[in-house]
Specification:
340 residues, three-stranded parallel beta sheet, globular, four-stranded parallel beta sheet
């Protein structure tokens, strides 16, 4: 099977010759340079080119990103502590400065065809660089991305949902409208065969102990907008795969009812286990697509290479016996994705 055929079969929950490998968030300059057989200086001269060479050496089938550290000697690709900070008292006025959902939908500055032409050009250009590796970028905006700590700052973002519910609802509706616009672009590319029938989306709205926003609030004001935002993807058979951080257990069923078709990046140390997730089904009763299974904290920092191999074998067997396709990336979770 080609990389494309393997990934498409995986998203369709059909047999594959081997489990597809996805990557793109590996940010160790030393590791990437070593895999590519170049120096650290060479890596920083061409982070994208060297990364692609490293991913090809690893047998990667698809890339959801091509990440590099923000600066030399670091593994961080972002730093929310350097985020814009909104004063709590200014939250309503700040949110009002963004377009309403209706204004987003009525936006006529550029037609869909113009926006898609630009989007398509970017996909084709990047795919040419990736060659046989499938370029299938993660697009967290294609849902209802509301965890904008980088825009609000941590305090103002958290206070908004507790103290300014009207502003929070307005923000959710705005992000849903933006997400649907993004989903329409992805859906068109899927129809044209430029993207596979699956896309990594999600939102980091959970901490180690559970959702950072009251699940009752999410159920009342977030589920409807999320369902609306995912409609273009689902209409063309593109499966939204939710990128999980923290303890997402309290909202898993909520996500599935909105149209999510699988999960990626779940953290065992927070109580989220693939053994339990694979027992779930989509709202249509379909098998889930699971990308995993390793945890940076519980596995990659503590186990030997042989023990990690055994973890994979156990996970694959568990999923196969439940007739659930197990599609995973072998390099961990989040911006600390490790190596084997």
């Amino acid at each position: 099977m080609t990389n494309w055929d393997r990934i498409e079969a995986a998203f369709a929950c059909k047999p594959v010759d081997r489990i597809p490998i996805l990557d793109g968030w590996t940010t160790s300059e030393e590791h990437m340079a070593s895999l590519a057989g170049v120096t650290i200086d060479d890596y920083w001269d061409d982070t994208e080119g060297v990364s692609l060479k490293a991913y090809r050496k690893l047998g990667t089938d698809g890339l959801v990103a091509i990440s590099a550290p923000r600066e030399r000697g670091s593994w961080m690709i972002t730093d929310y502590f350097r985020a814009n900070v909104v004063e709590v008292r200014d939250i309503p006025e700040f949110v009002e400065s963004f377009p309403t959902a209706d204004e987003v939908e009525r936006e006529t500055e550029r037609t869909f065809e113009e926006r898609y032409t630009e989007y398509r050009h970017g996909l084709v250009e990047k795919q040419m660089k990736c060659r046989d590796i499938v370029w299938m970028p993660a697009n967290l905006q294609a849902g209802v991305e509301i965890a904008h700590y980088d825009i609000f700052g941590y305090e103002a973002w958290a206070v908004m949902f507790a103290q300014y519910p009207d502003s929070a609802r307005r923000w959710i509706d705005y992000r849903a409208a933006m997400g649907r616009r993004e989903g329409e672009l992805i859906a068109k590319a899927v129809e044209e065969g430029l993207l596979p029938h699956g896309v990594l989306i999600g939102d980091d709205i959970c901490g180690n102990r559970g959702p950072l926003i009251d699940p009752a609030f999410l159920e009342k004001y977030w589920m409807g907008p999320l369902t609306y935002a995912l409609e273009p993807l689902l209409h063309v058979g593109c499966k939204p795969i939710w990128h999980c951080c923290g303890n997402v257990n309290p909202i898993v069923d909520m996500l599935l009812s909105c149209g999510v078709k699988g999960f990626q990046g779940f953290q065992r140390e927070c109580g989220v286990k693939y053994e339990e997730l694979i027992e779930k089904r989509t709202s249509e009763g379909e098998k889930l697509v699971i990308l995993g299974p390793l945890s940076i904290v519980e596995h990659l920092q503590t186990l030997t290479a042989d023990e990690i191999y055994e973890e994979y074998q156990t996970a694959i067997l568990a999923c196969m016996t439940r007739r659930v396709l197990y599609c995973f990336t072998p390099r961990g979770h989040s911006y600390l994705w490790g190596t084997l």
